[in-house]
Amino acid sequence: MIKASWHPSLLRFKHPFRIASGMRAETPVVFVELQYEHITGFGEAALPPYLKGTQETVASFFSRIAFKETHHPAETEPLIEFVNGIDENNYPAKAAIDMALHDLKGKLLKKPCYELFNLDKKNTPVTTYTIGMGEPKEIIKKIKESGDFPLLKIKLGGKNDKETIRILRNETDKSFCVDVNQGWNEKELALDLIFYLKENGAVFIEQPLDKKMKDDGLWLKEKSPLPLIADESVQGIDDIEKIKDSFHGINIKLMKCGGMREALRMIEKARGYGLKIMIGCMSESSCGVSAAAQLTPLADWADLDGPLLISNDPFRGIEFEKGKIILSQKPGIGIIKVSQPL
Ligand code: MG
């Protein structure tokens, strides 16, 4: 019989950052363990403060799962249906259970998840390396810290976007993409900035406009010289249809859609519309990010540098070689627990 246990925890940022309401030095998560006979599957629910859901709502979801004698972890499909039926929402909790079930299945069958999905680990992309907003000297410091990661992700949407790009170009000739997090509020201004970014070597733009600006999104996609990737505009599979004409691709995150199975379904649907695929993460440890990494042979881009920003990661899993995602031969989601979570 499958038994669940869970542990609320705080991940500490290596570099605490400023937000409107003060400093953000740590981020809440809940780790879950599913035990079946002598095997343990690991999962993680990440709960950034700007999304709904707390450690309490996740714990309450877990406490409502009553696994039955007949449930077998190798039969992930009916199990995930069973678990998702508990609550309409609570996607981080669903994602945690989904990855723990996939981890269990992989360990039972002694195969990494990417092999269960028939994916070739040679096809992983590089991850982007995130450069957050900040004072020029902080931006320069972060660019230096990016080491041999070849693709930077620059956060824009503030008042000094062109200045930030000038600083970047003074410092490095690395490729970069841009995440605006809905920060540009006029389509003409957005288009002007996108042309400027293209001239400076940007490869794509994530979520330029507010998700509510639907007509402006259609206009922008028609005129944009760079691919536009939806993040805040897409949560789950039903959103793809709605945004397919205003974006060139989507950023899929396990915490948004509820897990690996749902992410695979989203990839298939999005490809059917000719959309590009990016796999991203929230502030997560190597547990959640290594699960997401299993799907990256199917992605054009990945934004999975989350564990690099955490100082108390209880797991080891995803690795990088000059930024390229390296998937291990370890079964399941490919992680080992190296310390007890806080
Ligand atoms: Mg984003």
Summarize the structure.
It is built from twelve helices and 15 strands. The chain has helices at 55-63, 76-84, 91-109, 113-116, 136-145, 161-171, 187-199, 214-223, 238-243, 254-257, 260-272, 286-293; strands at residues 3-19, 22-36, 39-46, 129-131, 151-155, 175-179, 202-206, 228-230, 249-253, 276-280, 301-303, 315-316, 319-321, 324-326, 336-337.
Explain what this protein looks like in three dimensions:
The protein is α/β, with parallel strands linked by helices and 342 residues long. The chain has two domains: 3-110, Enolase-like, N-terminal domain (Enolase-like, domain 1); 116-337, TIM Barrel, CATH 3.20.20.120. Helices cover 34% and strands 25% of the residues. It is built from twelve helices and 15 strands. Strands 4-5-6-7-8-9-10-11 form an eight-stranded parallel beta sheet. A three-stranded antiparallel beta sheet has the order 1-2-3. It starts with a strand and ends in a 5-residue tail after the last strand. Residues 179, 181, 206-207, 231, 251 line the site of magnesium ion. Residues 179, 181, 206-207, 231, 251 line the site of magnesium ion (MG).
